[in-house]
Design goal:
There is one protein chain. By secondary structure, the chain is mainly alpha-helical. The longest helix is centred in the middle third of the chain and has 35 residues. The chain starts with 8 loop residues before the first helix and ends in a 6-residue tail after the last helix. The protein is elongated, with a radius of gyration of 23 Å. The chain has one domain.
């Protein structure tokens, strides 16, 4: 399949440089980069959904803390001043 996209001159130059460094055709480099990004996005979305579900399950089962407890833990962890 053939897709036409418009690139900025800077991005095209970066892609061409990468292709030259790898000794590959620019089309192959772009295709591989897009495949990696799409794979990463799919995995990232799945991880986010899993984490959100875990948080909802924890809340339903009473495993949570108040905002004040959370804020205090963050202040201690990052050595932040107490708010008044």
């Amino acid at each position: 399949m053939s897709i036409t996209i418009n690139l900025t001159p800077e991005l095209e130059a970066r892609l061409q440089e990468k292709a030259t460094q790898q000794g590959q055709d620019i089309s192959l480099v772009v295709s591989e980069l897009l495949a990696r990004v799409l794979d990463w996005e799919t995995a990232d979305t799945a991880e986010a959904v899993k984490a959100i579900q875990q948080g909802l399950d924890d809340f339903e089962n009473g495993r949570f803390r108040s905002f004040d407890e959370f804020a205090e833990a963050q202040r201690r962890k990052y050595n932040l001043p107490a708010t008044e």
